[in-house]
Amino acid sequence: MFSVIRADQANGDVRSQMSEIFADGFTQWLGFFSKDSSKIARAFAHMFDLSQFYLAMSGDKVAAMAAVTDGTAYSVILQAKPLRQHLGLLKGSIAGFVLKKEFQVLLDNPELDKCSIEFVGTALAFRGQGAASQVINHIVTTKSYKEFLIEEVADTNIPAMNLYNKLGFTEYKRKAIPKKQVEKIGINHLISLKYVK
């Protein structure tokens, strides 16, 4: 079993471990900026608002992570300087501009009884051991929200879809990917799910 804590209450450097999980999980999306996942990890390590993230810990190792926000605050905040430093002036600038629209998203109509679970990921060494399940269960059982949303999961991410279905999340929206992009990224749809208490 893992212990689940809020990231800003963890000891040691969890930010770099979180960024490695992020880089591994988002490599197919971020390949334009770099094929080197360690470079991606360094470029995006700054962005996490640790007060919005929960971690499944195994000793001093981050096994899994997920952010939870009520839609009035960002779970990540991109800064241009570290992106440019690690990705170069052009790609870093593009990353800051384009990804800000993707990553820094607030709920359209924030409600007190609804939240968004974001940036769910598991470290390679802990996959298949229930770490992400434990983090999501912790969020669902300890937070007072009635509805928990997980937005835009790739339909090809079968492990994630199986996890969310096992935890009681159901699909409520499906967005088709344009045909030109399907060939590049290999994803047909982005699926949004929700869990209602």
Which keywords apply here?
single chain; 197 residues; alpha+beta; 7-stranded mixed β-sheet; 7 strands
Describe what this molecule looks like in 3D.
- By secondary structure, the chain is an alpha+beta fold.
- It has one domain: Gcn5-related N-acetyltransferase (GNAT) (Aminopeptidase, 3-Layer(aba) Sandwich).
- It is 39% helix and 26% strand.
- Strands 1-2-3-4-5-7-6 form a seven-stranded mixed sheet.
- Strand 4, helix 5 and strand 5 form a beta-alpha-beta unit.
- The chain starts with a strand and ends with a strand.
- The relative contact order is 0.14.
Note the topology.
Elements (H helix, E strand, L loop, with lengths): L2 E4 L7 H17 L6 H8 L8 E6 L2 E9 L10 H8 L1 H15 L10 E9 L8 H12 L4 E8 L3 H9 L3 E7 L2 H7 L3 E8 L1
Parallel strand pairs: 4-5
Antiparallel strand pairs: 1-2, 2-3, 3-4, 5-7, 6-7
Helix pairs in contact: 1-2, 2-3, 3-4
Mean pLDDT: 89
- Beta-strand content bin: 25-35%
Question: How would a crystallographer describe the biggest sheet?
Answer: 7 strands, mixed
**What class, by secondary structure content?**
alpha+beta
The tally of helices reads: 7
Helix-strand sequence: EHHEEHHEHEHEHE
**Quaternary structure annotation:** single chain
Question: What's a concise summary of this model?
Answer:
The protein has 197 residues and is α+β, with helices and mostly antiparallel strands. Helices cover 39% and strands 26% of the residues.
